[in-house]
Specification:
single chain; 329 residues; 6-stranded parallel beta sheet; 13 strands; elongated; disordered N terminus
């Protein structure tokens, strides 16, 4: 069949017009997504960064190749979080990965449209981040570190280890949205064990020093560090002051014990940090946060430090030793 020159021109025009709609789609596919990472701690103290990045790499994401990160760290100053969240929104990142409860709150206030992945957050339903764990219903989903029950258990473990104590202090950061919930749980357990409980608050490094002065004044025999993203940043300071004061202390996560603290009972956060990457991946592939059920990170562990115990003159009872998930010599 012979095609006339005019017919060939028509075919070429039709072919070009058929291919034209593909160009924007191809350009969109080649765009490298940007993930905004918002943390209350400093970059050096943000222990969640490494496992989160490991999770992303396991899913095939390589920085500069098929993903870019915009890092924002508040260095323990919670008041900076909102402005940092606003910066990420202004950059029009594709997703905000919020590393902890205060960061999620700041991101929530900054945007109702950009997907927010909770790398770690306490009770997101009670905090108002999601409608329910099964159906988040908005632009927020991710990993929840459900600490309910662990705060009371910290008191139980402390009493089992030091059965003669009668006066205990609890350290909290009132800037944390969950601090009142944690305190009520500790109060309940302290009353059950007939302990005299002293609450001390701290929002920065200087106030931690003041808190320990109050603990000494109140003649507390042990300390419970019930939680706080900023406390992780100052964990070495906390551990050092507690050791200097010869104050047996139970913490809510293993980072403190690995830094020289006596013991911890609580969630292993690194597992949740890795799982947060799965949510980022699903959203980048088209899933909506509203339809992705919240992951409840529920691996609870007891970690002991024998070296710290010897320095404090503490002997872990056999029933505590056999229940330990990890013992640091």
């Amino acid at each position: 069949m012979v095609t006339s020159p005019s017919r060939r021109r028509q075919l070429l025009i039709l072919g070009a017009s058929a291919l034209a709609p593909l160009r924007p789609a191809f350009a969109q596919q080649s765009k490298i997504p940007r993930i905004g990472f918002l943390a209350a701690r400093s970059r050096e103290a943000a222990v969640e960064v490494a496992p989160f990045l490991e999770g992303m790499r396991e899913l095939g994401y390589v920085e500069g190749k098929n993903v870019r990160y915009e890092w924002r760290f508040a260095d323990g100053d919670y008041k900076r979080l909102r402005s940092l969240a606003d910066e990420l929104v202004a950059l029009k990142v594709d997703i905000v990965a919020a590393s902890n409860t205060p960061s999620v709150r700041a991101a929530q206030q900054a945007t109702k449209t950009i997907p927010i992945v909770m790398v770690s957050a306490v009770d997101p339903v009670r905090m108002g981040f999601v409608a329910s764990l099964a159906q988040p219903g908005g632009n927020i989903t991710g990993v929840s570190n459900m600490n309910e029950g662990t705060w009371q258990k910290q008191v139980d473990v402390l009493v089992e280890t030091l059965p003669r104590i009668s006066r205990v202090a609890v350290l909290l950061n009132p800037s944390e949205a969950f601090s009142e919930i944690a305190y009520k749980d500790v109060q309940t357990a302290a009353a059950r064990h007939k302990l005299l409980l002293t609450r001390v608050d701290a929002t920065n490094a200087a106030e931690i020093e003041q808190a320990f002065a109050t603990i000494k004044q109140e003649r507390s025999q042990a300390l419970i560090v019930a939680g706080g993203a900023s406390f992780v940043q100052w964990r070495r300071q906390l551990v050092a002051i507690a050791a200097q004061a010869r104050l047996p202390t139970i913490y809510y996560r293993r980072d403190y014990v690995e830094a020289g603290g006596l013991m911890s009972y609580g969630r292993n956060p690194s597992l949740g940090y890795r799982r947060a990457a799965i949510y980022v991946d699903k959203i980048l592939k088209g899933a909506k946060p509203a339809d992705l059920p919240v992951d409840q990170a529920s691996v609870i562990e007891l970690v002991l430090n024998q070296t710290a115990a010897k320095l404090l003159g503490v002997t872990f009872p056999g029933k505590i030793l056999v229940r330990a998930d990890k013992i640091i010599d």
